[in-house]
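Consider a concrete sample entry:
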Amino acid sequence: MQCVHRHLHQTDLHGPTAPDIDAGDMSSTALAPDLNPTAQPLAIARWLEIVAAIVVVIVLVGGITRLTESGLSITEWQVATGILPPLSDAAWQAEFAKYQATPEYRLEASVSGMTVADFKFIYFWEWFHRLLARLVGVIYAVPLVWFWVKDAIPSGFKGRLIALLALGGLQGLFGWLMVQSGLVGDMTDVSHFRLSLHLLTALLLLGSLVWTARDMRRLAIDPHIGPAPLTKAAAFTAVILFVQLLLGAWVAGLNAGHAAYDWPLMNGQFAPDMNFGRGFFWTLTHDPFLLHFLHRWWAWIAVGALIYLARRVRKSDRPASIALHSAFGVMVLLGIATVLTEVELWVAAAHQLTGALLVGATAWAMHSDGAARQNSRSGTALT
């Protein structure tokens, strides 16, 4: 009866146990210790989900910042005083003067005759992006302290929650290093390598928040269950998706979306002309035509892997399967639309937003795959 009772608790969250898990998948069958009496896993799950939602908004605003070439409009990082934008004409002129000293302004923006009003537009997006980053730090850190003091954090999760805080701080540091790369020499854009590091760290943080929230929701139903393990199938899917996200970040950093405005061909041919005169590795990591080509066709490999994962969790967690199918379907359509609309701002921004939602849906499905494996191994299924 105890086995049956525990199974019913599990199916409340995940549905029937998936039967198609590989025997070689990594799993953990150990049960977690009982929750401390003051633990609040459901409250922590909801808090982490709020933080994850804000991270999604930050990724969207970061995409708009990149598309409007606003990232270099603020040339300094002022943790406290930078919260407020310039409040007087003199302050705006001072900020504009700092921007006028950057290579981007001297070599590009000045040619089109940028005015203070134009500067205020790009300044807003970078300021708003940084404001949201500060906000998410506060929304994460303050409740974390409260949960810690109240002894509301389940056993074994304090280290993970601290690691998420550190990852968020590291992501902010990468953002500043990215900006710095565009303020030196004759650089008119930030380094696409640093941009990808900044973006992918944010997406890793998002996925980790979703995963931890799912662990907390399972604990709220069954206080004896351990954290969901990472299966080999989920890890394989994550690697495939990582490559696609990396290519997308490089495409954004190199403005490679403008390499072609037709689809499925590129400038009337299947494969673009590429120059390997500087070596294969340099071309692979710098050539906008090759990166655009790889990003649009590696997407279908990623779709195949995501379909595989979605089908694995279809029986154990149907909502996760639906969310994953929906996310990559919309992502593909918006990617094609971005090309055909010649990287129209709001279409491209929606493409990046859907990318963040896809990461969240993938983390959800990956967690569900591990949870189904764990349930099978721990003998909680009815036999």
Q: What stands out?
A: Residues 36-224 form one domain. The chain has two domains: 1-31+229-383, 36-224. Confidence is low (pLDDT under 50) at residues 1-33.
